[in-house]
């Protein structure tokens, strides 16, 4: 697909179309408290780290968010087991304290449903890497959400992340895109995102009765949701996979 990929800083008029773009995210994912409170601030604080892809007709077909942060600050050094949530909190903490960033983390790459299957995600990932390189960074990291893991939620994430095809590339399509682009799978982030809520809310999000005690498989969830009908709540703790891209 012929794409024009630019930063939001270069084309601020694409802000509204970017947010209005269709996506395939499960509804419950947006209720992670960190996502709920901070995602909309990324285009405001770092428009140069937000990429928007448009097709030949000017329609927005993909977006990519990333944030700069100080991985090598005191007390850090390693990619956090808290994954997506942790790196977002680090980035905004660094911004508030005026700490100099040394690394860029991908936060989201989303492709519109009608543009999927045309290699768009790979092009946008390459553009995200190049954007970071052009801004003087030597490394991009990504808490990757394996996009086929939801098909086998009972499989341990460590086993799934390390599974490969006969050609040596990852079994998971999204991890495969990252590795083909030069990324190296480093480790699992076991608690990358957490969504908790009342059973009433979970029923609204999923359309499921969620009246069974214990682990319940929910469409779109990478691992089962822990349900407590007797106490009226459910909790989802999503694992992601850290991938490191040297630039």
TrEMBL record:
InterPro entries: Acyl_CoA_acyltransferase. It comes from the Bacteria. This is N-acetyltransferase.
């Amino acid at each position: 697909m012929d794409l024009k990929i630019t930063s939001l800083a270069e084309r601020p008029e694409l802000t509204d179309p970017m947010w209005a773009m269709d996506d395939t995210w499960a509804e419950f994912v947006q209720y992670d408290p960190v996502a709920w409170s901070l995602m909309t601030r990324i285009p405001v604080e770092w428009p140069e780290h937000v990429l928007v892809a448009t097709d030949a007709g000017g329609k927005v077909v993909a977006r990519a968010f990333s944030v700069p942060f100080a991985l090598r600050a005191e007390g850090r050094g390693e990619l956090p087991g808290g994954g997506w949530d942790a790196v977002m909190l680090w980035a905004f903490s660094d911004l508030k304290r005026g700490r100099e960033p040394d690394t860029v983390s991908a936060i989201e790459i989303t492709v519109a449903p009608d543009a999927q299957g045309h290699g768009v995600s790979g092009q946008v990932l390459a553009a995200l890497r190049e954007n970071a390189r052009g801004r003087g960074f030597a490394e991009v990291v990504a808490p990757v959400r394996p996009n086929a893991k939801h098909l086998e939620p009972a499989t341990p994430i460590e086993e799934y992340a390390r599974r490969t095809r006969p050609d040596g590339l990852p079994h998971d399509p999204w991890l495969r895109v990252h590795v083909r682009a030069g990324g190296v799978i480093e480790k699992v982030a076991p608690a990358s995102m957490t969504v908790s809520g009342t059973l009433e809310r979970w029923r609204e999000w999923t359309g499921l009765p969620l009246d069974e005690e214990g682990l319940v498989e929910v469409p779109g969830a990478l691992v089962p949701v822990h349900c407590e009908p007797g106490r009226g709540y459910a909790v989802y703790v999503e694992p992601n996979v850290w991938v490191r891209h040297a630039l």
